[in-house]
Design a protein that fits this description.
By secondary structure, this protein is an alpha+beta fold. The chain folds into 3 domains: 10-202, Heat Shock Protein 90 (2-Layer Sandwich); 207-328, 2-Layer Sandwich (Ribosomal Protein S5, domain 2); 387-590, 2-Layer Sandwich (Ribosomal Protein S8, Chain: A, domain 1), CATH 3.30.1370. The strands form 6 sheets. Strands 5-4-3-6-2-1-7-8 form an 8-stranded mixed sheet. A 5-stranded mixed sheet has the order 9-10-13-11-12. A 4-stranded antiparallel sheet has the order 18-19-20-24.
Length: 590
């Protein structure tokens, strides 16, 4: 029998290893930024083109590499961060992943230029598919410049799995922010297609957060600070009123390394217990410092998952520290049992001049029908009368009759009407959402969108991340009746809006839209117009608790049953329920 086991060539082994290390351009960004930080750089510049597919380049002013190191860094298992296996459990840098640069060089075209402070000239190396194409001495500044071009150029199948430029750019920004947040003492710059996205000056932790997420972030932050023998914790949590349904602003750092930990996240949720609405997520940027020997960072190739020696103790400390901070800054409601609350007088109120007097009519007899109390009818004040509206009966098959049937509101939330089969109870807000949704999609298709110009622009606070998400969709929003003035990373000026939206809801609508796009950019990109109509119909629809005139009820019912899909709102929730006459009769059967 012939031998069948063979050793793989190095370039094939590197391509296979790249599958674990390099999943997308953001993986390259993470590796290069962390290497620049470990090199002691005070300024780091990130340059990307076409979502990182064409170019990812990191330039730093760190200590650089010698000619020998520059060549060896692309070999498998080459590292400057460990000497023996025991060093794996006391790593204080960004960690060692010896196959990283070798894997990157195996699936791209790499050009490295570097120089140390002691060398007179630098070194430049060009590599394609693990093969060294060029190595020469060049004039260079101290530090390192590493450009990764045409990622997966020699593995077309992998390149086809990459998402759009906007999606890949979003992942790159996430990695950039994670590194920049924890290393606030370093100056960071980021450029996309020759446009500057971030320019972050050295600062303290709070200032760096504001630099990244916008000026309006400052008022949302509550500082956290706790120091024990096993954990030093500092950072910020967002006030409960700024919680969101997404997990957008949630960052855990352990020994200056970004991590993901569902267990520690639960500790944060526990500290916010009773302060958040259903399905709401708190924001936080928390830095943890623990002894290196109590931490294992090598349980996952990307080093974002770690294992703690005593995670139960850390859980308790985090929960306690956050509850203390929230209470200390008057976020948690407090009761003062020592204060005489009867002395509290609302600001601007006038104290009563005298005690109220109680008057009783001694001649009143409730059983005397001859007595007519004129105030008796006042008992019914404030009770909404049932309002009936004529309505042409709507059948589920779309047929109409000339029979007039009544409709009325119940609890200012439902419209009750009937057809020949029984009663129909309609959720008024969802019904209006369906009507608006189909109207909006038709308007976009026909390019006939009603718009209203604003006398004064609406200024919506904007940060760089939101601006990056907004820009690709600006044209579609303008086709939907919006117009914009100033657009930058500080503010978004809205000068015209669609007729269905009220001006006071515009900032919330845009923030909600950008947040949803940030969480699911790939899903929303292909069907953005329908997604936009779905969000707009939610904000333009009447709310539960709104009193509807009888004519408005009739109009809404007519519009609903003229829709292509009257039974479900744009989010897929039921709009009405039908109660058959037989079902009602059965309730009265003995």
């Amino acid at each position: 029998m012939a031998d069948i086991i063979e050793l793989l060539p190095d370039h094939v082994a590197n391509q296979i290893a790249a599958g674990e290390v390099v999943q997308r351009p953001a993986s390259v960004v993470k590796e290069l930024l962390e290497n620049a930080v470990d090199a002691g750089a005070s300024t780091i510049k990130l340059i990307i083109k076409d979502g990182g597919k064409t170019l990812v380049q990191v330039i730093d002013d760190g200590k650089g590499m010698t000619t020998t190191d520059a060549r060896l860094c692309f070999e498998r298992h080459a590292t400057s961060k460990i000497k023996k296996a025991e060093d794996l459990f006391s790593i204080k840098t960004k960690g060692f992943r010896g196959e990283a640069l070798a894997s990157i060089a195996a699936i791209s075209q790499v050009r490295l230029r570097t120089k140390t402070e002691d060398d007179d000239v630098g070194t430049e190396i060009a590599i394609e598919g693990s093969e060294v194409k060029e190595q020469q001495a060049v004039a260079a500044e101290k530090g390192c410049s590493l450009a990764v071009k045409n990622l997966f150029y020699n593995i077309p199948a992998r390149r086809n799995f990459l998402k759009s430029d906007n999606v890949e750019q979003k992942h790159i920004i996430d990695e950039f922010q994670r590194v920049a947040l924890v290393h606030h003492q370093i100056r960071f710059e980021m450029y996309n297609n020759d446009t500057i996205l971030f320019q972050l000056e050295p600062s303290n932790m709070r200032q760096r957060i504001v630099q990244i997420f916008g000026r309006n972030t400052n008022e949302k932050l509550v500082p956290v600070n706790e120091s024990t023998e096993i954990l030093k914790l500092n950072g910020f949590v967002f006030k409960p009123e700024f919680a969101k349904k997404s997990r957008q602003h949630q960052f855990f750092f352990v020994n200056d390394r970004f991590i993901k930990s569902s267990y520690m996240h639960h500790a944060v949720l526990s500290a916010f217990e009773g302060l958040l609405g259903p399905n709401m997520q708190p924001g936080y940027i928390l830095h943890m410092e623990v002894p290196t020997e109590s931490l294992d960072v090598n349980i996952h190739p990307t080093k974002t998952e770690v294992k703690f020696e005593d995670d139960h103790a850390l859980y308790a400390i985090i929960r306690s520290a956050l509850k203390h901070s929230l209470g200390q800054f008057n976020v948690v409601p407090a009761l003062d049992f020592d204060r005489n609350q009867s002395l509290d007088v609302p600001v601007g109120s006038t104290p009563p001049e005298s005690s109220p007097r109680i008057q009783v009519d001694p001649t009143f007899n409730p059983f005397d029908n001859r007595q007519k109390d004129p105030s008796w009818n006042a008992l019914y004040d404030g009770i909404q009368e049932v309002e009936f509206a004529p309505l042409q009966e709507q059948l589920f098959e779309g047929q109409k009759t000339t029979t007039q049937v009544p409709s009325f509101q119940y609890k200012k939330k439902y419209i009750v009407t009937s057809n020949k089969s029984g009663l129909i109870v309609i959720h008024q807000a969802r019904a209006h959402q369906r009507v608006l949704y189909e109207s909006l999609t038709h308007q976009m298709k026909e390019r006939s969108v009603p718009s209203q110009s604003l006398a004064f622009p609406i200024c919506v606070p904007m940060n760089q991340e939101q601006l990056t998400i907004f820009e690709p969709h600006q044209n579609t929003l303008e086709l939907m009746g919006f117009m914009f003035g100033k657009v930058d990373q500080e503010v978004l000026e809205v000068t015209a809006i669609h007729n269905s939206l009220s001006m006071d809801l515009v900032p919330t609508f845009l923030s909600d839209l950008l947040e949803k796009l940030a969480n699911e950019p790939a899903k929303k990109e292909d069907h953005f117009t329908h997604f936009l109509a779905q969000i707009m119909s939610k904000y333009g629809a009447i709310r539960s608790g709104t009193t509807l005139h009888p004519a408005t009820q009739t109009h809404l019912i007519d519009d609903l049953f003229s829709c292509a899909e009257p039974d479900r709102c744009p989010n897929g929730k039921p709009i009405f329920v039908a109660l058959a006459e037989k079902m009602i009769q059965n309730k009265f059967t003995l």
